[in-house]
Amino acid sequence: METALVFSPHADDATIFCGGTLVRLAEEGWRVVLVRVTDDRFDSLGLSVEETLERNRLEWQEAAGILGVAEVVDLGFPTDCLADLPLGRLRERAVWLLRRYRPHTVLSFDLADRFEDNQDHVRVAQAVAEACWVACFDKHHPEHFAEGLEPFAPAERWYFSRSGPEPNHVVDITDHLDQKVRAVCAHRTMMRHVVNQYRLQFRAAGREVPALDAAVSGEGLPVLLERYVAGVAGAVARGAGLPEGRFAEAFRREDTSEIAALL
Ligand SMILES: [Zn+2]
């Protein structure tokens, strides 16, 4: 059985960027291990930090269940603060996870997205990309070897992003779109907060949008999220030249093919 190790800085990132792909991999028999790097303590609207921590943790686990994830790992770093930590601390955890789970494929945010403004996303992208080669070394983190772990390199890395380089790997998720939508909707607390950010932005532009008001109140949220998820996945599919009516997710894949061609 192959393993996919997925790094999600926040609870909702993996669901949004590669949720359909995770459902598909799980159905094909892969073991999907989902790592939440931060604790999402600030990501809610009108709730205390304690309630936010609890709701986001439970909703993340609910979404992971919908996506067919076999195992979840919570690293628990404080949210929106990864840029304040030494990168080596995060990288050590990524190296440990690579050596512990020995995945065929790693999924993570793309280091090459120059327009990413969320520093948690940037730091995880940096730490994971570097960990993928540091994990091979027999002198980095010898304390891992004392635990019985060994040097390791994943076969493939699939990087997702908001506005990174042109993707070279597209996964058709048409048959898994329903599960992706349900999983995104499971992140109710975070999604209400995201929608409220857009509502504030529209308000600053002098516009009140009833659909956003309804979503923030809760009852209009699933309708809006379904439209958003299907809209994005449909556009990705069209961009990849798939037939009308298909839905997809896209990645920048790095694998062994370039080196293999030289052998
Ligand atoms: Zn995020």
Report on this model:
This protein is of the alpha/beta class and about 260 residues long. It has a single domain, classed as LmbE-like (Rossmann fold). Helices cover about 50% and strands about 15% of the residues. The protein is built from 10 helices and 7 strands. The chain has helices at about 15-25, 50-65, 85-100, 120-135, 140-145, 175-185, 190-205, 210-215, 220-240, 255-260; strands spanning about 5-10, 30-40, 70-75, 105-110, 155-160, 170, 250-255. Strands 3-2-1-4-5-7-6 form a 7-stranded mixed beta sheet, with helices on both faces. Helix 2 links the parallel strand 2 and strand 3. It is globular and about 60 Å long. Zinc ion binds next to loops.
Report the β-strand fraction as a percent range: 15-25%
Bound molecules: zinc ion
Query: What is the CATH architecture assignment?
Result: 3-Layer(aba) Sandwich
Q: Report the biggest beta sheet as strand number plus sense, adding barrel if it closes.
A: 7 strands, mixed
Major sheet strand order: 3-2-1-4-5-7-6
According to CATH, the homologous superfamily is: LmbE-like
What is the helix tally? 10
Features of the shown structure:
263 residues, alpha/beta, Rossmann fold, 7-stranded mixed beta sheet, 7 strands, 16% strand, globular, binds zinc ion
